[in-house]
């Protein structure tokens, strides 16, 4: 019996190694977001194609994939990225350049991919099809940087505006904020009186000056050093709801889908959409990844980014799929959420009720300035009293 058990264990170990080597590895941000991807399009793609899909969590950026490349040991196939990272990674040769309408199928309505992905046609800021920030990017979801509060503990007065996030006299207590300046310097300026303008143009005009950057960072610094305030920095998307539920902070910035999922599981949270930062998330194919040359990674990516795939992810989280044809599927199938009761289109960050005062996060600004601003932000955090 022992010999048989050992043999079974040995066979299982070998099979696990073979399966792991064969699987396409997709890297994403963990928690409810990765769960929505896995359940919405990862598992269906694996079942349809007969190719296992393995999900790995990371905290963003290009440092890990750069290290894999330098070591000559790339283990990732597909990465979920900020727009600025698709730009920089593409420029550095980390990712595969797509032949967009060849690599990605038409929508369910037959419209070619480059006309089906979100804005359709060409992004006015770039010559790449489908509104993509680089030739190495395919749009995944539209999401939002918002803030939320615990409505059971906040008191009688409720925050309603972006300025309220910084108002420690009216709402005393610590704030949870992202450990990177991305999208929060914009929020700081909006709270300091700069109206975003069309797409946030006025905010970025200010941030392109040294005075504007200093103004934004000083606004954050003042909040963090305020005796009635204070800052708790987070990096994992699941953290803001946890901070609010535990009472460690009175308000927290975060991603709307994470707050939505917490609310749907009973958390007493309310989102504030005023001054929200609309942002996009993309997928890139790793050049030289384990399943690059054999074509399996591209097959999986194509299937996941299909009309049905992107619509499927919205059954599990309130992020808007990047394809217009996916939105049509959701509209026709409402209530679309997995509970069979909740309409999802009104919960999307791009809905009319949520876009009365917002800015579009500028990927080109952050691709050009992210490293320098990150260093200034870290210096600010290190010097907090």
Could you describe the 3D structure shown?
- This protein has two domains: 214 residues, 3-Layer(aba) Sandwich (D-Maltodextrin-Binding Protein, domain 2), CATH 3.40.190.10; 152 residues, 3-Layer(aba) Sandwich (D-Maltodextrin-Binding Protein, domain 2), CATH 3.40.190.
- Strands 1, 2, 3, 4, 5, 6, 7, 8, 9 and 10 form a ten-stranded mixed beta sheet that branches.
- About 7% of the residues have low confidence.
- Helix content is 42%, strand content 16%.
- The chain contains 15 helices and ten strands.
- With 385 residues, the chain is of the alpha/beta class.
Keywords:
385 residues; alpha/beta; D-Maltodextrin-Binding Protein, domain 2; globular
